[in-house]
Amino acid sequence: MFTTTVTIIGAGQAGLAMSRCLTERSIDHVVLERGEVANSWRTERWDSLRLLTPNWMTRLPSHRYEGDDPDGYMTAAEVVGFLDGYRERIAAPIRTHTEVESVATVGTGFRTTTTTGVIDSAAVVVATGACSTPRIPALSAELPNHIHQLAPIEYRNPDALGEGRVLVVGASASGAQIADELCRHGRDVVLAVGDHVRLPRTYRGMDIHWWMDTVGILDERYDEMEDIVRARRLPSLQLIGTPEKRTLDLNALHSAGVDLVGRFAGVSGSTAQFSGSFANFCDAADLKLGRLLDTIDEYAAEHGLDAELAAPERPDRTVVPVAPTTLDLDGIDTVIWATGFRPDYPWLEDDLLDRKGQIVHDGGVMSRPGMYVLGLPFARRRKSSFLDGVGPDARELVDHLAEHLATLASRAS
Amino acid sequence: MTTTTPSQNTADNGVNVEALLGAREAMTGTPAAAAFTFSAQSEWVNGTHTSTTVEKFFGIGAEQSHRRAFVLDTDHPEIFASEDHGITPPEMVLVGLVGCLTAGVASVAQHRGIQLRSVKATIAGDMDLQGMLGIDADVRNGFDGITVRYEIDANATRDEIEAVVAQSQKRSAVFDIVTNPTNVTVEVA
Amino acid sequence: MTTTTDTTTPAPTVPAEFNGVPVEKLRGTIAKLTDNPELAAFQFTARNEWIEGTGTESTMHEWYGVGTDHVHVEEFTAKADHPTLGHGHGPTPQEYVLHALAACLAAGVATTAANRGIALSRIDTVVRGRIDVRGVLGIDPDVRNGFSSIEVEVDIDGDAPREALDALVTASAKRSAVFDIITAPTTVVIGTTS
């Protein structure tokens, strides 16, 4: 039996950032990690993966990227190195190879049962991230047996897949990047496109993330959004981090030779069915992009930046190819489900979750006093699930946590 | 995008927004209330002429009725060797689709504070009859594709209007029914 | 590949019109289109005008087929609206889809029966479409906007055994344009003119 003040579950960037913030306040804590530090960056990323965000945006409490390529994009291995270095620097008290089996409420505190023992604490921070368990649609069960199915966390490189045609489902960042890589390696690729967020890599000479950071979009707060539920479900940005800073949108994919079809909507016998709503998704993405660029141009004008920047311009509309609505599945060898993630908290009490299994929280403050969650999409800010977002969120949640501890202490005395 | 606060939004496109919001609230709390069944009763007249009555539907936990019974006729044109007593069933689908999309345009516009002056649409569906007539098994029976062209006069920019039209598709029942596969089971009584 | 709508039974000699279906004329059209597939390209059109709220009116007059433009015998109009939210101008758009399906299947039953020499006296159809409206209301993004399923019940009186009448329905669905439009995905592209 081990007792501490705060139990942090997960030693990725969120858990480490929270550890640092607690240390700054001299609050005792332990960090539990099922594998090694930055586990998912080690084991659940494909070989060529790079961050979408430029290196200068890799900023955690008291530690930031200090290499010689601030405008470049880190590889997964470099992220692991960065987080390993962070862990040492902040001397985070981590227990590795420790899986959480349950978190139970005991009085005003919590009992966390793990594979290496039991921990009692006054508070718990869930920092397991939002990218652990892939969401695989029910359609998966209807695919013929010959098809090799996998999610992006299992994908490593083109050579690891069978020879034939690959169907990538979902045109989010992962789906677009994997389709792009496979196509560049000479593979026959079909990409099924539903809802997606289109962005240019650079605009008027500046990285699009620089714009989103500067204009304040990444700091937009959860309680200022008209429809936060929708905002939290937005697919990941269709971007790639490459030295050439190229744009990865549907026009680029189509030019590269990827076949584009609509959303994967059904299976009938051995025929895959794709939605006829493809054009609508493309129109919606184009319009949304236009609004973002308008916002950027307004900001630039208001802040006198126009003289230093290239002129405003608008990318070409997405050219929607005449796409078939059916494909013979006998001609497909591999299906990659780039269809996002689902919540998976069997170790949390049911009343902490909503009907869909998501953690109920208000800006990261969970429904049970003393419990917090960090690193979920748009939890407090638009950048909450990004490397750059966990720090500011952690600081604010630690304020809340410290007050909670003070309240408990004053009741006890 | 035009964003207006409720007090600033004076757009009135005739959409009963209060009823809509009330229904939304009621159904968020009680999902069972959202289970609707629409139905139509159809009687064959002669040849390819059918007459359909639409009156009752089920929703919000009870049987409901339209204000009156609507009677719809369909047939085939004379070149099909029919008598053209009514439009063809595929044209009826077009009626349903465009009616749904425009209703959505009115609702979304109202929600966004955009006053509509007129909304016209031309919807067209292309069909290769070799499918339906059993001439070529590789040709589908239905439309190869449907296009809709909107002409909208409103106090909004071109981008705002396009955004309304895009959003209408996102929330349209018939757009979904047509663009995505929908299960149909047919039984003989 | 078939040259008529049905190959299960040899077509008996039938009068020019059977079940009200001018079979001869129909076979003539099929033969013409078989020999000249480019004539099979059809286009149906509806022009719709917003009335108020969720109420609109469509006009169906022009259509294209067999290589040339045509018009219906009259300008047909159809109004659609929504109960509660609307002003009672017409049935809902999704009910039009149900009617279209019922009518398409019934027309197919009558035609197939005529081809097979089966005289019919009655075809009654009830179509039901189930929909969870939390989709269209934007309450739950995991619920689809349209019907989750549609059930059709066809009641036929005709001059043939039960199995033969059942078979008419199966054959009709197989060749039905609307059944296909609904059950398989169909591409829709929407644009605005200024």
Brief overview:
The complex is a heterotrimer of chains A (413), B (189) and C (194). Chain A has 413 residues and is α/β, with parallel strands linked by helices.
What are its keywords?
heterotrimer; A: 413 residues; alpha/beta; FAD/NAD(P)-binding domain; 2 domains; 7-stranded mixed sheet; 5-stranded parallel sheet; 22% strand; globular; B: 189 residues; alpha+beta; two-stranded antiparallel sheet; 5 helices; 6 strands; disordered N terminus
What would you say this structure looks like, in words?
The complex is a heterotrimer of chains A (413), B (189) and C (194). Chain A is of the alpha/beta class. Chain A has helices at residues 13-24, 39-43, 76-90, 173-184, 208-215, 228-232, 250-256, 278-302, 390-412; strands at 2-9, 29-32, 59-60, 63-64, 94-95, 100-106, 109-114, 117-126, 148-150, 165-169, 189-193, 197-198, 202-203, 206-207, 237-238, 259-262, 264-268, 271-274, 326-328, 332-337, 361-362, 365-366, 371-373. Chain B is an alpha+beta fold and 189 residues long. The termini of chain B are far apart. In chain B, the strands form two sheets. Chain B has a three-stranded antiparallel sheet with strand order 1-2-3, with no helix packed on it. Chain B is built from five helices and six strands. In chain B, helix 2 (89-111) packs across helix 4 and helix 2 packs across helix 5 (173-179). Chain C has 194 residues and is α+β, with helices and mostly antiparallel strands. Chain C folds into two domains: 37-91, no CATH class; 92-184, GMP Synthetase, Chain A, domain 3 (2-Layer Sandwich), CATH 3.30.300. In chain C, strands 3-4-5 form a three-stranded antiparallel sheet, with no helix packed on it. A two-stranded antiparallel sheet of chain C has the order 1-2. In chain C, helix 2 (93-115) crosses helix 3 and helix 2 packs across helix 4. The model of chain C is unreliable at 1-7 (pLDDT under 50). Chains in contact: A-B, A-C, B-C. The interface between B and C is large, with 128 and 136 residues. Strand 5 of chain B pairs parallel with strand 8 of chain C.
